[in-house]
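Re: folding output
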Amino acid sequence: MASPKLLLQLCISSLHHITASVFSLVWRWTPGAFKGTDRTLEERKVQNATTPTSVNYHFTRKCNYKCGFCFHTAKTSFVLPLEEAKRGLRLLKEAGMEKINFSGGEPFLHDKGDFLGRLVQYCKQDLQLPSVSIISNGSMIKEKWFQTYGEHLDILAISCDSFDEATNQLIGRTQGSGRKSHLDNLYRIRSWCQQYKVAFKINSVINTFNVDEDMTEHIVELNPVRWKVFQCLLIDGENAGEVALREAERFVISDQQFQEFLDAHSSVSCLVPESNEKMRFLDCREGRKDPSKSILDVGVKNAICFSGFDEKMFLERGGKYVWSKADMKLDW
């Protein structure tokens, strides 16, 4: 069983749903053939380990929403102590990390967003990373957080699967009746991003409940720097199977349906599609998520060297892009 301290989930997605208390990595291959015959296969793999250029840190599994398709379910409430989390981030920076993306669960839920804010500040101010980003459902974000930590954040991505409140209710992207509107939060946060100079992004999971929805008008109005569109994906043990906490089968759409949604929104220039074919490089080659040992225990190279990775697919899916707000030349 993997250490509960800092699991390393091998993935190349900047998704908002992957693994708890986990550093999940997107990397590029570091060239250089191994020379010599006196080392084991494992040592050779470590020697030729990949560079964690872009990292997703899913430091919590807890979430206040109940999205029916979510494949990052709350199996534990464990969150690393702040200083241990910082140590892991420092190790990743030393190994070549350029971009960190904080996710969950809902990352603003733990310690009312202050834990997240301190990590964001540390990554930008102390580690001087070119890009620091967050994926959130937006429900817990307050303007005070922007006032305290906004200057250290490059990109804030808000998950929004529909611009119809009834559809969001069916999906589970809501805190229940009588609570704040998910769409009101979305537009409010968009305004704060403009005010505090944080690049704004939207993530949407396309499923049976929204596959026929035309989102063009709203996306154009919100004008995100990127609109990441995911095809609903099943992961055994998370949102599918006997031990899963979700039953997402009813949300799954075909490849053809997903392509038809993309075709219907082809005029939206910021759209970046993420099909199931591209998302399967989560190290879920056996139909599940298999974490490595903790980077705090074995180091970055040892933790990532036994995974499968397709650099061509990483580039095709738009994994490398302009991710520092200083380079985006946005009109604030």
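--- second protein (sequence, then structure) ---
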Amino acid sequence: MAATEVEIGPAVERAPVPETAETAAGTATTSPATAAAAIVAAAARTGTEATASKAALATKLLSLSGVFAVRKPKGPTSAELLNRLKQKLLAEAGMPHKEWTKRKKQTLKIGHGGTLDSAAGGVLVVGIGRGTKMLTSMLTESKRYVAVGELGRATDTLDSTGKITEVKPYDKITQEDIESILQKFTGNIMQVPPLYSALKKDGQRLSTLMKRGEVVEAKPARPVTVYSISLQKFQPPFFTLDVECGGGFYVRSLVSDIGKELSSCANVLELTRTKQGPFTLEEHALAEDRWTIDDIAQSLEHCSSLLPAELTLKKTKPEESSEQVLSCKSVTLNETTGNDEIIKTF
């Protein structure tokens, strides 16, 4: 499914600060960065050079705080990509280590604000440390998408991943026809969200209920904002749109509605988020080969200048809502039992 839909309700996981017995007492009242610094000193006294190096990386990782952007490819869900990022960072820092004790755990918090579905790619905004508290603000920022629509076919998901539900002719539709109706979808408009979405009913996503074969009623139309739409290319049956919109907007619904307005039907073939808030795909989104502690530290420093000063100090609390998505994960990786790591998700 294509992506702009997000629901609020953070799911939090937690990841531990490694510590030795001699530093356990101090970490209970110190910050993660300070606690990790103590680990470096302990490693230098009791461990090998390699252990000290890993502990230094753990210190740096746990001191990271702010908001940055990564490049999401098609395929994985946003949650899966976030987990991949988290695991790469933990592995680079050597966390967890079998010699670390279970007591007095500190946490690594990491989350994303603004879900992109598995079929979509582009900018995914990530918060780390205290930056996870800024993610709610990212949901209200403007977003920009490049969408490739296909005329003549409708699907149950409103994109190419779904089952075809309708086929209609499109051969008489011209470029001028499409351009002439785009104004109807610009400004403050009403939009019905798709049934396959992250919106919830009785605590469960509508898409999950649909996949189970349960009967789901469409959500009522709701107000959304479209700042601009332009037709970039038209090669029947395909047309490419550049869309800038506000939070809660569904590009899939837009493409479907355009098809209906043209007395045909349409679905989204490809979707790429090129911008979210101040973060752009070309300038700010880190590709996976740059998911390192050093690269993220540099990106956080650069991206901090893009955010309003008041936002960096704001302590927002995610609201409970069934109409937007905020995924905020932190994982507690405990001491290993045998060869298996115990991972608790909260």
